[in-house]
Amino acid sequence: EVHLVESGGGLVQPGRSVRLSCAGSGFTFDDYAMHWVRQAPGKGLEWVSGINWNSGSIDYADSVKGRFTISRDNAKNSLYLQMNSLRTEDTALYYCAKDMGGFVDADGFDMWGQGTMVTVSS
Amino acid sequence: DIQMTQSPSSLSASVGDRVTITCRASQSITSYLNWYQQQPGKAPKLLIYAASTLQSGVPSRFSGSESGTDFTLTISSLQPEDFATYYCQQSYSPPLTFGGGTKVEIK
Q1: Chain B: residue nearest A116 by CA?
Q2: Which residues of B touch A61 (CB under 8 A)?
Q3: Cβ neighbours of residue B16 under 8 Å, at least 6 residues apart?
Q4: Which positions in chain A have a beta carbon within 8 angstroms of at least one beta carbon in chain B?
Q5: What is the pLDDT of residues B25-82, one digit of tens each?
Q6: Could you report how far apart the first and last alpha carbons of chain B are, in Å?
Q7: Sign of the alpha-carbon dihedral angle for B60, B65, B71, B75
């Protein structure tokens, strides 16, 4: 069974950093692109970043570009999101999502984790 | 960036009704359009990809269609478990973008 489990969220002060992790299982992790999608409380979905199967192509939403860094370790079946210079507007539930294909564009996200909450507040 | 405009933002319908949700892209995305269902307190679930292909395990009452830059999700006969919020998403070009969502309430 395909499974994604996020971790690393919590309460963090504005301007500080946090690193999210996502552990994948039940599928060949290095065959697929992976993404981070966030959802602020009571709001809609916002794509944050995506990385292709071999880390050769990476993209970010304009709202996080220059502050967030996505990475993956295929040997550990893991996806990461390094979040620096955090702002109050980054407060959200962060989902890890598996792409149907190996590239950031073209396909939908066929599996999602349950999310990890990041709250940015002083 | 490609903007996705979804309508309506909410609707109320009865069990058995036919429901239609529309999503318009700000430019051509060919058929790179996906639909997701999010039930309260849960992660999103992929319903339809490539505009009209039903994801495995999704009931056949869900269908998708396209006409140029306009895309439609149809629920042919609304069921109580379809109470949820629905999102479209373009996967044509990063940054990938979602529509604002349509909340479907059961009358």
Answers
A1: B43
A2: 95
A3: B77, B78
A4: 35, 37, 44-47, 50, 59-62, 95, 100, 104-110, 112-115
A5: 999 999 999 999 999 999 999 999 999 999 999 999 999 999 999 999 999 999 999 9
A6: 37
A7: negative
